Homoserine dehydrogenase
Amino acid sequence: MTRHKEITIGMFGFGVVGEGLYKILQQTPSLNAKIKKSCIKHPGKKRNAPEELFTTDKDELLNDPEINVIVEVIDDSVAAFDIVSTALKNGKAVVSASKKMVAEHLQELLELQKQTGQPFLCEAAACASIPVIRNLEEYYDNDLLHSIRAIVNGSTNFILTKMFDDKIGFQDALILAQQLGFAESDPTLDIEGYDAVNKWVILLNHAYGIVETIDHVLFSGIQNIQLSDAMVAKEKGFDIKLVAQAKTLLNGKVAAYVLPEFVKLDDQLAFVKNEFNGVVIESGFADRQFFYGKGAGSLATGSAVMSDVSALRYGYKYEYKKLYHHTPRELTSDFYVRVYISFDDIKKIKKDDFEWIEEWHAGLERSYLTGVIHFSKLQKDDWWKENGVSLILAADGIIEEIDSRNAKRRSLELAGIHL
Ligand SMILES: NC(=O)C1=CN([C@@H]2O[C@H](COP(=O)(O)OP(=O)(O)OC[C@H]3O[C@@H](n4cnc5c(N)ncnc54)[C@H](OP(=O)(O)O)[C@@H]3O)[C@@H](O)[C@H]2O)C=CC1
Ligand SMILES: N[C@@H](CC=O)C(=O)O
C-alpha cells in the first residue's frame, strides 16, 4: 500500500472486537479509514450499527475491488484462515486478531505473505493493547534478546486475581470474564492454557524466528490450581500467575513454555492484575524492560487492530528479521526445572521422574512437594496434568545444569521420605 492511502475496510466479525473497532473508527476520522461492509454469521442478531453495513456473503467483501484491507476478527479459526488466505491471494492487506488461526497456520501464513507480497498484521492477537509484536520485530533486531516472560492471557489473570485477591469463586470469576468480553467463545481455551500458548507461538516467531506449533511448546493452564496452592504461595511470599516464558540458554537454544508460576511479590508480573497483561523483556545492554496494558476487551483490542490499520497507510509489514535475516533460534527441552506439585493422592505422582526432592509437606486433604525434574520428562508424561495434581513452577525455575551423580544421592538425603 502507498503512503497515506485511503483505507476501505471489509470487516469479518462484529462481536466484542469488531464492534470495538467500529466505535473507535467512528471517533478517529483523521485515520481516513471506513468500514464498507461487515460480514457476520447470524443475520438475526441485534447490532449497534446500521443494518445495511452487514452481510453474510463473504465474497461481497473478498471480491470487492474497492476494499483494500480485510480485518478478520471472528471466533472460528478454520473459517478465519480461509478468509485470510483468500484475501491475501486477492491482493488485499489483512489485519487479524485471531491468535488460534495464526498459531495453527504460522508456516502457511509466512509463505502466503512471501507469495503475495501483501502485509499481514496481527498485533491484537498477542497481549491485545500492548504493542509487543511490533516492538519485538523492530527494536530487538539483534542477537541480544536474553528472555521474555509474560502474562499473555487476560481471562486467567482476571480469574486468579478475583479468586485470590477478591475471594470470588472460580466459576463466578469465569462468568464475569465472559460477561466483560475477555474470555474466548470456548473458555476452555483460556482456562487450559491453549490461548496463552497460541500467543506464545506467535511471539516466539517475532522474538526468535522460531516457527513451531503448540505441540512443541509445553503448556498448561490454571484448571488444577487449588486455594491451598494460593495459601502456600502467600506463606512463602509469592503470587501465582500463568506465565509464558522464553529464555536463551548458554548453548544458544531457547527454553520456552507456558505454566503457572510462583511469582515474587517484587517481580513486575506480580503487579499485573485482572485482565491486564505484562511482558518483561531482558536484553543485552538495555537490561530489563516492562510492557503493561490491557490484554483483552473490546476497546483495548480494537485499539491494536486500529493501530495495525493505521500502520498499513505507511506501507508497514513484518519483515520477520529473526527468521529471514538472522539465524533463527531453536527450541530445546534439555534443561531442568524446579517445581512445586500439590496432589490429593500420592499414587498420581511419578516419583522416578524427579532428580531430587527438596521439600515435602503432608496435609490431611492435600500434600505438596518441591523438587527438580528434567523438562523433557514433563513433555513426555502427562501425570502432572491429571485431575487432582497441580504443578506450579518455582520462581527462577529454570536450571541449566545439575551434577546428576549427586542428584540421586541428594534426593534420598533431602527427601527423608519414601514416596
Ligand atoms: N475478546 C477479546 O478480548 C479478544 C479477542 N481476540 C480474538 O478476536 C477474535 C474475535 O473475538 P471476539 O470479538 O471476542 O469474539 P465474539 O464471539 O464476540 O465475536 C465473534 C464474531 O465472529 C463472527 N463470526 C463467526 N464465524 C464467522 C464466519 N464464518 N463469518 C463471518 N463472521 C463470523 C460472529 O458473528 P455473529 O455476530 O453473527 O455471531 C461474531 O460477530 C477471536 O479470534 C479472538 O480470539 C483477540 C484479542 C482479544
Ligand atoms: N481470551 C483472551 C482474549 C484476548 O486475547 C484473553 O483472555 O486474553
About this structure: The domain at 336-415 is CATH 3.30.70 (Alpha-Beta Plaits).
